[in-house]
Structure formats: structure tokens, C-alpha cells
Amino acid sequence: MPGKITLAFTLCLAAFAADKDVDSVIARRNYWAFKAPTRPQSPDTIDGFVREALAPKGLHPSPPATREQLLRRVTLDLTGLPPTPGEIDLFLADQSPAAYERVVDRLLATPHYGERWALRWLDVVRYADTNGYEGDAERPHAWRYRDYVIRSFNNDKPFDRFVKEQVAGDELFPGDRDALIATGFHRAGPIHIVGGVKDEEADRQEVVTEMTGAIGSVFLGLTVGCARCHNHKFDPILQSDYYRLQAIFASAQAKDIGLHTAEEKAAHEWDVKAYEARLAPVKKELAEIEKPYMAMLSERRKEKLEPQFLDALNTPADKRTEAQKILAKDAEKQIKPAWDELVDALAPADGEKRAALRTQMHAIELTKPLPLAAAFATVSGEKAPATHILRVGDVKHKIRQVEPGLPVVFETNGIETPTTPAGRRAALANWLASAKHPLTARVMVNRIWQFRMGAGIVRTPNDFGVLGERPSNQKLLDWLATEFVARNWSVKAIDRAIVLSDVYRQSAAGDAAKAKIDPDNRLYWRMNRKRMEAEAIRDNVLAASGALNARLGGPPVRVPIEQEVYDLIFTEGERDGLWPVLPDKSEHARRSLYLLNKRGVRLPMMAAFDQPDAMTSCAVRQTSTHALQALSLFNSDFMQEQSTVFAERLKRECAGDTGCEVRRAYKLTLARAPKPAEAKLGAAFLKNGGTASDFCLALLNRNEFVYVP
Predict the structure, then answer these.
(1) N or C: which end of the chain has fewer CB within 10 A?
(2) How confident is the model at residue 11 (pLDDT cuts 50, 70, 90)?
(3) Minimal CA–CA distance to 257: which of 179, 353, 358?
(4) DSSP characters for 144-174?
């Protein structure tokens, strides 16, 4: 084929003639993770494979969960939200054998299913709305990738297509808007953007390193990044493998590509002019107030300049030497007053007038038109700089040049890589999405199983290598992987099979005798009890209070933050207006998935409940237990406010009937009726002077509330 080279086995050997370890790598193809899964012929059901693994240990499954527990579990698992009182009543009243199946199908069809999956997927791809590091600047168009992920799971997009779009949507599906947005995958991680002198070569190396590592973690489930400085110490991945994989991204360029029409552009320009016209007079008034004070303060600072800086500043610009130009630029920075100096210098009357104008200015700034629609994309450039193996990963110490290719340990199944810059990522995408690939389907079904069962069959979801944990039930893993491909890579089909299985419907109650045999429940003799993620806890609080704004998608939302956090973030200069919050309070009650995810600033409640920092791929969220969690759930402004809103809901829906309020509160928070003792205590508390908001706050602080049963 003209212009192309084959990546078949013989050419891999030729390309790696300089690698003395190639033969040993080829010999290690028999490791289970590098062999394509084969479908076990029996027992051919999820429950059959689980029972088969339990039997030799003398174990058997636990009894089923109660109907109330099961409804809350599957609703939280598939949507991240609790069942409504109406849904609870309907399910409990439906005694037909198909009642639960109907619930599952309804939940799989709700748009909240995609939101639920997006939370997990965005953890893995380390998505955030800002760049990270010192600047941590916002990414105004990144949210379209988040919404693309939601749509993809809601539409049950075949996973092989989902992979192809993210890796090479621009190359494989030109003209497809969603496929272009999907390439934001390569830009989801942090990027180190700083001012001053830059090393473009080192900066570029950092970018392609991020891209390469993401492919390894997200789709291969391998720590390919460990081969950046030397051959992988444990897995059969050579250092040259790493850089051949990295060469695939040599021509990839980050680019925001407009998605707007000419009419939309014209309308946007008009809106911007109108906005600037509203803002200009306020800024002019502010400048007039500040001008004399700024001049005075500048003169004071000027008096303190060192002679060489003062001399350069006083020299006319057109007569300055090159050295003086540098000194003058530095001097201008030195004499510029800080905002706190200006505020302190203002006369009281001017200070009050200025403060009022700034409040007016910030209100107008909230009406600034959103930027024109653009895809936060990755595209192929016309050139692909040469890629070299680097000594200890240092771009300044090149060893030898390599061509784009795939790790030699894998069979490539005839996949071809163009010699031209374009098409390299397309070849990678086609290889990853191949039904014959040994890892892609396994890695994804393991993530699905982990999401629903609380722990993966492979408990290290991003590491299927030698240092990762072995599958606790490889036959089940391979059956799921082959079933996944057979069902057109349908995530919903695998989800449905899992949540309809008996193993999923088991009780989560412990058993001391069984725990002695399998203390970590690796064989799934019971259901794993799972704590809700930070975002789900917040969403469930909003759902219970009735305040939840269930609107899907759109730009990220800033919610009010605690003053101490605000003080911590904005430690210098004037801080008002630096965290603009929309005046529409209903937007503050959006699902947590839509809150501005700033790498450098996590909301206290999110941080307390182990929200990842989005700097690295998070395959398994940590579940810590500490005092700050209780303090956050009990004392935070958010919880106090929502408890009051919850109490108002109970009053409104129960018309002052105390017994009704107790029953309704339990159903909204725990998806069950109160036990007799609980009903008695709740009624007594409310009748004896206890406030409804305190009662609601106590329910929202129950251990049972934050755990999936």
C-alpha cells in the first residue's frame, strides 16, 4: 500500500533490531493479559461463574437484599440519584416477577444514566475545567467533552466507536461534530502553562507524554509510562515501545475549532458590543476615581527605585539602550501600586463610591456573552517532528530516532500506520478498538463490573500488568469481554446483565464464617457495601430537599464557596469578583458533575469525601473516614441551608402532620419507611420542640444515608 508501512510482526522485529530484549518480550506474550480472551463455554451466565468459583471454597451466595434495599441500590448505581417516593410505592406494589426488570430498563433509559457514567469516566481520563499547576487557567470549551461523554453513554454508543472518536475522531470521522469534540480526550489532563522564558521542546514533550500515558491507563490498563526512562522493569514493554507509541502523537495539535455559523458569529459580535457598551461607562468612572491615587502611589514607589531603574525609566523610550529597555520594563512593574495600597489610600467618600461601582461592574460582567461555540479538540498537523528515545526521559538527551508503532508484545493484526503525519492516531484507534485486542474489552468490562459491584474482577483497573492484581475470576472476566464484543460493544447490555444477576442482588450483610475464608470478598459471596462519592452525596442532599436542578449539560457552574477557601485562593490584591457566582440560585443546585472542576481548588465537601484532584488518572476512588466529613455534613453552609429547604418541603407536602413528615423524610433520604422505634423518636422530637430542619439534618448525617445498601 503506497505511503504506508505494515506493523506486522516481522517489521516490528526489524524496527527493533537494536533492542536486545525484543526476543524476551515476544516470549512473554503468553501472559494472560496479552492473549485475546476466549469465550468459556460454561457455565455461560454471570451467576454460574460466581457459584463455580465459590464452590471449591465451600462458600455460597448470600440471601437477596430486601426490595427496598435493592431499589435504592440499583437507582443510586445507575443514576446517582435516589428513587422518588412514587417510584418506591410503585415498585413495592408491583409483585410481578418482571417488576425489578422493568425498573432496570427504566433506569437505563433515563438521561441521568449518562451523567452517572460520565462521573466515573471523567475520573479515569482526569478531566477538569482548568489547566492545573500554578496558573490553573480555565478552559472555556472543555465542558463540551464532558457533555459528549454523557450523550455517548445515554445513547449507548458502541464502545469501539467511543474509543475511535476519542483517539482519532478528527481523522476517522471528518465532519462529525461529536467526533471532533471527542478528541478533547487528549487534552483532558493537566497542562503546564506558565509565563516567562519557555522551552518549547520540553513543553511539547510534556504534552505528548500526557497523551501517551492516557492511552496506557485508560484503554490498555497498563503502566506504559514506566517505560519512559528505561525498559519496563516488570511488564514486557520496551523503552523503544514507549517512544514508538509516543511518535503516533508527533503531529497532534491542540486546537479550539469553531462550531458556529456566520449568523451566530454576527449575533455574538453584536452581543459583545452591547456588553462592552454597558461596561465602559462604569470602568470610566472607576478609572477617574483611581487615577490621582494611582499617580500619587506610583510617584512614592518611584522614589524608592534603584538609580539604574530610575535612569532607564526617565530616558525617552526611543533613546533607551537594549539594557535600559529591560530595566524600564521591570521598573514599570515595580512602580505599579498593588490593589491593597490603592484601597488603603482612598478617601472614605471615594472608597464608598468605588466599592459601589465595582459591585455594579461585577453585576454587568455576569452578563458577558459566552464565547462562540468551539470544540476543545485535537487535530493532526501537516508536520510530524522526529521522535527520539530519550535518556531518562530528558528531551535534551536523545539516543536514537524511532518511527511510530505499537508495543512489540502485542499482535498487531495487520494494522498499518501511515508514514505521513495524518492517520497515525487513526491506526492506533483501529488497533485499540479491534475485537481481537486482548485488553480493550477486558479493561472496560472490568470497569463496568467495578462500578456496579464495588470492586473489579481485576482490582487494579489501570494495571493489568505483572504488578497488578490477578483476576479473581478470569473465566468471568473473559466471558464478559467476549459478551461485550458480541453485543456490539454495548455498555448498557453489560450493565443490564450485571444488575439483573443474583450476585448483584445479594445482601451486603457480613458473615463471620465466610469472611474467614474470603475476607476481601474477592469471590463475591455477598454484595460490597459502597459509600457514595462526594458528588453523589451532594446530589442526594439536593434531591431530598427538593432543590435539585436536573437540567442536563452546559458550561460549568460556580457555586458559593466558604470565605476561608476564598481567602486561601485569592491571597493577593483585590479579591472581589474573582469567583463570580450566578445570581440565579437554581443554578447552584445543579448536579455536582456540572460544578466548575478547578484542579487547584476543590470544594471542602468534595475534598472531604475523596474527590480526586484530576492530575492523574483515578481508576478507584479512595474511601477515607475522618472527622472533617462529619463536620462538613453537619456544619457547612450548604448542609444547613439544604436542611432548612428540606424542612420546608416536608411542611408543604404534609400540611403540618408530624407523622407524615417523619415518614416522608425517611422515604426521601433512605428510600424506606421508618421502623416503629424511629417513627416514635422522630415524632417525639418534633412534638417536643425540636425543629424540622434539625431533624432533617440528622437524617442527612446518618451513616445509612451516605452508603449504597
Answers:
(1) N
(2) very low
(3) 179
(4) HHHHHHHHHHHTT--HHHHHHHHHHHHHHST
Distances (CA, A) of 61 to 55, 57, 291, 514, 521: 10, 12, 77, 10, 11
Output the pLDDT for position 197.
62
Q: How far is CA 451 from CA 80, 166, 622, in A?
A: 12, 21, 14
Mean pLDDT over the full length of the chain? 92
The Cα 552–Cα 540 span in angstroms is 16
Contact 658, 647 (CB under 8 A): no
Asked if the model's pLDDT at residue 213 lies above 90, the reply is: yes
The Cα-based distances of 480 to 224, 447, 489 in angstroms read 25, 11, 11
Q: Residue 9: its pLDDT value, please?
A: 38
pTM to 2 decimal places:
0.91
CB neighbour list of residue 332: distance below 8 Å, 6 or more residues apart: 313
How far is Cα 108 from Cα 86, in angstroms, rounded to an integer?
A: 18
- In order of 34, 53, 560, 596, the CA distances from 565 in angstroms are 47, 50, 10, 15
CA dist 334 and 263 (Å) reads 46
The structural domains of the chain, with segments of one domain joined by +, span 1-14+158-256+378-435, 31-61+439-530, 65-110, 262-365, 637-708
Is the dihedral angle over the CA atoms 70, 73, 79, 85 positive or is it negative? positive
Amino acid symbol at 627:
A
Q: How far apart are CA 4 and CA 424, in angstroms?
A: 10
